[in-house]
Amino acid sequence: MIPILYGMPGSLYTGKVRCYLRKQRIPFEERIAGDPRFMNEVVPVVGRWIVPVLQTPQGQILQDGAMIIDHLETLPQLGPRAAPVDQVLRVVAHIFEMFGGEGMLRPAMHFRWNFDETNLAFIKRDFLNSLAPGKQGAEADMAFAFASGRMRKATLSFGVTSQTAPTIEHAYQEFLELFDKHLETTPYLLGSSPGYGDYGLVAALFAHLARDPYPSQLMKRVAPRVWRWVERMNAPDADAGEYLGNAPEWIDLAQPCESLDALLRFVAEDYLPEVEAMVRFTNEWLAERPDLAAGSNGMPRPGDRHIGMMKFEWRGMPIEVMVMPYRILMLQRIQDSAALLNAQQGAVLKALLTRTGLQRLLEISCHRRVEREGHLEVWGPAQH
Ligand SMILES: N[C@@H](CCC(=O)N[C@@H](CS)C(=O)NCC(=O)O)C(=O)O
How buried is residue 148: exposed, middle or buried, by Cβ count under 10 Å (0-12/13-18/19+)? Predict the structure, then answer.
């Protein structure tokens, strides 16, 4: 028996787990979400339709990219651990895990859903392969209209509109250039092996941005090293021949690394305002619900994934986006790993975050923690 990964080739979060499984050289079977076994055996357990899901050889069902990787990290491994040994790098890894998996949804969704002339035929085939295999004609058209309609609506809810699109494109191109420059000297984000940061970034950068026709061309043209990194992330070995073994095992944070600083500054400009607005919005939302029971998500349905829409200023323009408690969980991962640092490590992290404009990431928090229970995000106990 080997683990079964339920997902889709075109799914952002499935890519995160798939890369991890390959890097660990864990044999696994990937099944599509349109497999009847997903609907019959998995969805009732998970409580909502969502991928990726890992079914372990013992029959345990795990949902959520980060939780699946965390679980596998506790088992004996063949490949490199996702958590860097250095505790400060671990915090940096979780920052990019959050940014890649959550902060990069705007370019990912924009470049998938707003370039129909180049993308649509591919996406339609890809979606139908995974969701409605074997369906033809009107039946297939209906299945794709339903799935793509939901995703186009989600694209808007992530703040992708005709007003924000030019800035999203501009910012994404800047990110590609910065990451490409960074990869000149290191095959992975923080050194010679992949970690949580790489797995977070590959979520958006593989399925949507490297695989869909329009953004794939863009990435190859603007950032060939990033495209190679995506390929490398999908290989079981280190796949870093072009570095001739000269790359550092880990980036040494005692020395300033200009290209890493530049990426962190990008995260500060592109994503920190949203994280701050999310924490503000959530604290107001919680204040209006003093009796919210621990263990519940406070929404009409336990599977609901967002608690409302918030407005904030993004790169000088108003933008409206949904607020997802899952992102608070991702912020907690960063802060929890920072809380483990000793004084000396804390000083290294503080210097790094201060010079890159990210120090607020450690200073803001919600009045209640987000926890995971029964495969869902729920509120933890009220803190007094
Ligand atoms: N936090 C979750 C997010 C998973 C997620 O959003 N998956 C998408 C596909 S990439 C999905 O299943 N969406 C549900 C839907 O389309 O209704 C994880 O990391 O597993």
Answer: middle
Task: Tell me the two tokens of residue 374.
Answer: 């029964």
Q: What is the 3-state secondary structure (H, E, C) of 200-264?
A: HHHHHHHHCCCCCHHHHHHHHHHCHHHHHHHHHHCCCCCCCHHHCCCCCCECCCCCCCHHHHHHH
**Best CA proximity match to 282, nearest among 326, 317, 316, 314:** 326
Question: Which atom belonging to ligand 1 lies closest to the Cα atom of 50?
Answer: 12
Pocket of ligand 1 (CB under 6 A): 11-13, 49-52, 64-66, 150, 326
pLDDT (tens digit per residue) in 139-163? 999 999 999 999 999 999 999 999 9
Cα distance between residue 221 and residue 217, in whole Å: 6
Pick the CATH number of 96-258 from 3.10.350.10, 2.70.70.10, 1.20.1050.10, 3.90.1300.10: 1.20.1050.10
Q: CB-based burial of residue 138 (10 Å sphere; 0-12 exposed, 13-18 middle, 19+ buried)?
A: exposed
CA 310–ligand 1 middle distance (angstroms): 21
Contact yes or no for 272/358 (Cβ under 8 A): yes
Query: Ligand 1 centre and the CA of 132: distance in Å?
Result: 18
Q: Rounded to whole angstroms, how far apart are CA atoms 28 and 370? A: 30
Tally DSSP H helices, then E strands, for the chain.
16, 8
In CATH terms, 4-73 corresponds, of 3.40.250.10, 3.90.79.10, 3.40.190.10, 3.40.30.10, to 3.40.30.10
Residue 199 CB contacts under 8 Å (≥ 6 apart), including other chains: 16, 19, 20, 65, 69, 82, 97, 100, 233
Only one residue has tokens 């007003």, namely 163
Question: Per-residue pLDDT tens for 174-233?
Answer: 999 999 999 999 999 999 999 999 999 999 999 999 999 999 999 999 999 999 999 999
Q: Where are the alpha helices (DSSP H) in 245-363?
A: 258-270, 272-287, 325-339, 343-356
What residues does each domain of the chain span? 4-73, 96-258, 270-379
pTM above 0.90, yes or no: yes
Q: b/e per residue, 30-54, with b = 16+ CB within 10 A?
A: bbbbbbeebeebbeeebeeebbbbb
Question: CA-based diameter of the chain, in Å?
Answer: 64
Q: Which residue's alpha carbon is at the smallest distance from atom 1 of ligand 1?
A: 64
